[in-house]
Design goal:
The protein has 150 residues and is mainly beta. The protein has a domain of 104 residues: Immunoglobulin-like, CATH 2.60.40.10. Helices cover 10% and strands 41% of the residues. A four-stranded antiparallel sheet has the order 1-3-6-5, with no helix packed on it. Strand 7 and strand 8 form a beta hairpin. The longest helix has 15 residues.
């Protein structure tokens, strides 16, 4: 009996966690450089090139929210697709383009750091996952959070 209850709960969790808002993307956006022969053709892949990988906000007053736009360009030969952006802390949020980015096109990834409840030197990472090779790019933000003397 426990076995059936466990399977029922597992199936409920499995089907209940789906995101129905996901759009179906064309498989044409996925370029696999590996071939059956073992050779790799990287020349047709998208390439994500950021203006800079690190931003220092400098001194930030505790409780202040600061934002920076990491600008990037697709310098490759096929459409770039950012599949996810993950931050190292709940104090950092990101907004990124969800549509394919054409070769030569420039966009930006917006990062907001909330210094509420933080103090001292802060170093946070933003992990960008895309259809490039390598598929992960790590961005960093820094800040020195100071408290206001009352």
């Amino acid at each position: 009996m426990r076995y059936f209850a466990f399977i029922g709960i597992f199936l409920l969790i499995l089907t209940g966690c789906g995101d129905n808002n996901n759009k179906v993307l064309s498989t044409d956006l996925v370029k696999n450089p590996k071939t059956v022969s073992g050779s790799e053709d990287m020349s047709q892949l998208p390439v994500i090139e950021f203006d800079k990988l690190t931003h220092d906000f400098g001194k930030v007053t505790q409780g202040e929210k600061v934002t920076f736009n990491f600008r990037f360009k697709n310098t490759g030969k096929s459409d770039l697709l950012i599949t996810s952006v993950n931050t190292s802390c709940g104090c950092t949020a990101s907004e990124f383009p969800r549509e394919p980015i054409k070769p030569g096109e420039q966009k930006s990834l917006r990062v907001t750091f909330d210094s509420e409840g933080r103090k001292g030197i802060q170093n946070k990472t933003i992990t960008v996952v895309s259809n490039c090779q390598p598929d992960i790019t790590v961005l960093r933000i820094k800040a020195m959070v100071v408290t206001m003397n009352k």
